[in-house]
User: Fold these one by one.
Assistant:
Number 1:
Amino acid sequence: KNQVEQSPQSLIILEGKNCTLQCNYTVSPFSNLRWYKQDTGRGPVSLTIMTFSENTKSNGRYTATLDADTKQSSLHITASQLSDSASYICVVSANSNYQLIWGAGTKLIIKP
Amino acid sequence: NAGVTQTPKFQVLKTGQSMTLQCAQDMNHEYMSWYRQDPGMGLRLIHYSVGAGITDQGEVPNGYNVSRSTTEDFPLRLLSAAPSQTSVYFCASSYRQRANSPLHFGNGTRLTVT
């Protein structure tokens, strides 16, 4: 069964610190992996899309990594800001029918 | 550009009532979709459309209808509301139904069915 699991479920860090969010997936055949940021009360916003051949992709202070062999991805946030408080959702696209398999998200809280 | 606009933002229904959630996009996107988001779960696809006049079922279509008469609009109809349909509903669009097309989301409709 195609699944995406994220850890931790929630995370609290101090402003200015770095953090890493994890995503493990069992999706086949794999097409790409996406990270979305969802602010409270808003819709998700795309951060990155990574294909099979991409190991690392950055978007400002956000850096996503992908290991297609171990089926793992991580999202690293550098020098966190209060505005980074949000849920971060990992989504894997299955190649066969453009199906998107959504993780439940990691809720990140940045404290001043 | 307004992007994806959803109305209403909040709605309370009684069991058995019907209603339509509105979704409009101004990006000339071919692909539009409806998701529901429930606590502790990933987004689940209800229905989607790859162009005007074409719709198809997603993962959880029961109790919902859609139509796509124009490129811009993709309304979601609840036929006879049930408490199990209490959720946050998101409309999303993308340029095409392609693997590398990012989805653009509206800000959701929070629906409560009593």
Number 2:
Amino acid sequence: QQQVKQSPQSLIVQKGGIPIINCAYENTAFDYFPWYQQFPGKGPALLIAIRPDVSEKKEGRFTISFNKSAKQFSLHIMDSQPGDSATYFCAATLYGGATNKLIFGTGTLLAVQP
Amino acid sequence: DVKVTQSSRYLVKRTGEKVFLECVQDMDHENMFWYRQDPGLGLRLIYFSYDVKMKEKGDIPEGYSVSREKKERFSLILESASTNQTSMYLCASSFLGQDYEQYFGPGTRLTVT
């Protein structure tokens, strides 16, 4: 029940394409879903996050779509650029509270070809 | 600029050695975390701490211990390193109640031979 399943494991797109990364969770108590971006040689960094009271959130070229009934959420990258090449992790947690663990997906290695 | 630093970027140790990985954050965060990152397995939580001298087991604590004597410093200890502990180790920190926004260090690539 604590798992977050992420797919695909790797993805190659051409510049300008729209890569889509999908995640699914089981625990209906989760109420905060962040995405982290990790460049080679760096630690992950928070990219964008969504709460289940909205179905979509956009920040620049990054969009999270959320389907509460299906317990799924996905990351879309519009007009992808070679600089977006990185590993992307979805995660789930409980918002607020004293201490809650982030449950990470297994990661998607994205390569955007020029 | 917020910063989480880890003592080494690369480390090579022999089987059976005691290994110390150090992490320091300058953001006055209450929470600190240790993860290991392996291909296809994502980020797995080893231990975390929400206060000085406090520690909680994560999902894979076996073979590891931690120490937090000061708020800004969190150490991961491999009591007797084994080859299956070869991995990338990531330290992170966050404010209390804001575990959803963790700040990560650059990682330590540990190889145990």
